[in-house]
Amino acid sequence: MDNxxxxxxxxxxxxxxxxxxxxGNPFLHTPNIDLLHRNGTSFTRSYCTDPVCAASRSSWAxxxxxxxxxxxxNGGRLHxxxxxxxxxxxxxxxxxxxxxxxxVPGRNVRDSFETLYYGKRDIGAGGAAYYDSATTHxxxxxxxxxxxxxxxxxxxxxxxxxxxxxxxHNHEEKQIPNPIEQGILTEDDLPPLPENFNYDERExxxxxxxxxxxxxLIHAPILRAVKKWDELQSRYFKWNYYRFVEKVDxxxxxxxxxxxxxxxxxxxxxxxxxxxxxxxxxxxxxxxFALYEESIRVPLIISCLGEGISVKKDRFDESHFVxxxxxxxxxxxxxxxxxxxGIQGTSLSPLxxxxxxxxxxxxxxxxxxxxxRAIVDDTYKFITEYIPKKIEDYIPPGPDIEQLGHxxxxxxxxxxxxxxxxxxxxxxxxxxxxxxxKLIKHESQLNRRYIPHSNPQRLISNWGKRLxxxxxxxx
Amino acid sequence: MNSxxxxxxxxxxxxxxxYQNELFEIIKNYQIHLPLVExxxxxxKYTKHVYKxxxxxxRGYSGNSKSTTKLSIGTVSIERxxxxxxWDYEVNYTNDTSGEDIHLKFSCENTKYRPLLNTWxxxxxxxxxxxxxxxxxxxxxxxxxxxxxxxxxIDISLIIPxxxxxxxxxxxxxxxxxxLSNQIVTNEENxxxxxxEDLEQIRANNKIGYLNSIQSPISLDGFFLHGIGxxxxxxxxxxxxxxxxxxxxxxxxxxxxxxxxxxx
Lengths: 475, 264
Known about the structure:
heterodimer; A: alpha/beta; Alkaline Phosphatase, subunit A; 8-stranded mixed sheet; 16 helices; B: 15-stranded mixed sheet; 15 strands
């Protein structure tokens, strides 16, 4: 009899770290994620490795940063020789199952996992309205029928609240009245504008070219549409976003309700995480792609609904910096498997058990849009960018201090909403330099690899060309 | 300006296939089958409505096939058979994107809210290539504030937060909103409703209210529905009190066909 725990990895998509009612957010109701919190530890300093679906998920699957995986944006291909979590677990006696969204390009999920459900047409970026309920049905079918004595790992990929992107697409080419004009809500029903709706416009070139200019590289039609929004429409966006979170919370609730009635409950570790956040109007941004807190900070709860696994319950871990690269070694640790050499993360199990941990990392490192980088620690948030060396720049950049472009520096204690970029203040020049060196030191440990495939190369070239034009001609 | 109402105008960005043309074609088909009597479901013995499902944005959930000429990705049919003082419902939902065929059987009181009665049954078949192929479930109302659902022989309990409002299956809203429409318009107030979505999921604290009336593509009165865990949706009712279009920003149900048998 194999007594290793079952592991349920439940992930949502584009879930703001604070869009959970147990964390004090009064504008939504998430009783089921709240239940996970009451039965586990919530990490409030949890960050994704890259604020976009495919890239972040490639880190979940491998324990590597996105410049290492071959998926440094919403494209690319996972390098063939990197083992994923499904392969590692299966080779160590686990049954590894997948259900729902995967979105790790270059790796066929059916080759690495036993798939319960992956859509009639393979699930892509969106479509929660069709896929999430079916995903829950598939999990219900699995949990009520699994008879094998081998422990299982089941990853459940919900699409919501990602469908908020479809809400935005709806605004691209038509006028939709705000909810007060529609007559369906009052102003009191709407959450307020975020504290940092107005922002410091001194951002990196990468950020401006990707997400600010009229012909932005990413979702330009959406950006042009939301620029015309009034305040009520921005607030209504957030109101709608919370309904999506509630929808996926209900799906999670059905899974937990069934799990509680099975014999697996006591010996099943539940990891709840999201691939990236949602800007929700902060810095007048919507969706993700940016290195601001709202996009990179994600909910992470590790819990057990029974008593069979040592988990500190109803607790916030507010001190440890946790990254998306940590999930892979955490899962290996609970499965009593040695993770492959070269992975970047660290097992969270000591933190889950509430044990004192010395030498835990004192910062997290995040990548974005191939050239973007950030470091977050207790004191400051540092954002910067690499300037493309040339158009055919197919090895993810770094570590090269001479190649760094603009910087953004925020005082985390006095400016938690990142409204005042200190990098342009001469008084902070030494601090900016210190963080540039910290970044370079971190990146010197990474195994950044050539991107060999033509489609991602084409995207890198197109984006690189635009960025170089910006750097050379300022347009 | 939008050429048709914004709540179901999804033509932009979806020129191939053409959303608006497909919408008009489906509605034209429904008008051929338009009953001569007002769709007062109290007066009918058996009614079947068939709706086409149109995704509102032509993205991942419909695949990347450029040869596709139709938007429709499925159908839902709602059948009601009137007995002495209650209604039997059967709902069949087929979705080519999720791969699920959902079959629901339940009974309701013969009142405007169509409160659920007794026990109900559901089954779901999945036509995807992966391990999940089907589930069976049933349910019943245990007392005023608890619903018990049995999925593949495992019982789970759902708590209803507001026990003063009857529980309505979401698929009966196609009748409930027309039945409540006069009350909502006349009293100028929203009504509250508790839903049991697909007979599996409680959705409490929902509101239905009047939106506005339109003349294109046909004369329709609009109502909205929103609540916790629900995307706002818009319900368009014709003069015969038939729900013709239901739309949220993600998809629309467009009435394609009506079959009616009247009493005596």
